[in-house]
């Protein structure tokens, strides 16, 4: 089992005016998990991922956040 290894980044979202939500829904058509990050630095285009592999989703959203929000830890 693979484990996502960057929880410290998510702890710092609030320091960067971002809001992160992880939701589990067994009835979702797009996958069991939704990861959504929104906030001022992202404007009207939040970062969202839907799927069944939460570790993969957190990693993908983290990579997109690093591309779009200057100052996040590398």
Characterization of this structure:
The protein has helices at residues 7-11, 54-68, and strands spanning 18-24, 33-39, 47-51. The chain has 74 residues and is an alpha+beta fold. It has a 3-stranded antiparallel β-sheet, with helices on one face. Strand 1 (18-24) and strand 2 form a beta hairpin. The protein starts with 6 loop residues before the first helix and ends in a 6-residue tail after the last helix.
Sum up the structure in keywords.
alpha+beta; 27% helix; single chain; 3 strands; globular; three-stranded antiparallel beta sheet
Name the helix and strand elements from N-terminus to C-terminus, one letter apiece: HEEEH
Global mean pLDDT: 85
- Beta percentage is 25-35%
Distance, first to last CA? 24 Å
Total of DSSP H or I helical runs spanning 4+ residues: 2
What's the shape? globular
Structural class determined from secondary elements: alpha+beta
**Number of separate strands:** 3
Proportion of helical residues: 25-40%
**What's the gyration radius in Å?**
12 Å
Stretches where pLDDT falls below 50 for ≥5 residues?
Answer: none
Main sheet, how many strands, which sense, barrel?
3 strands, antiparallel
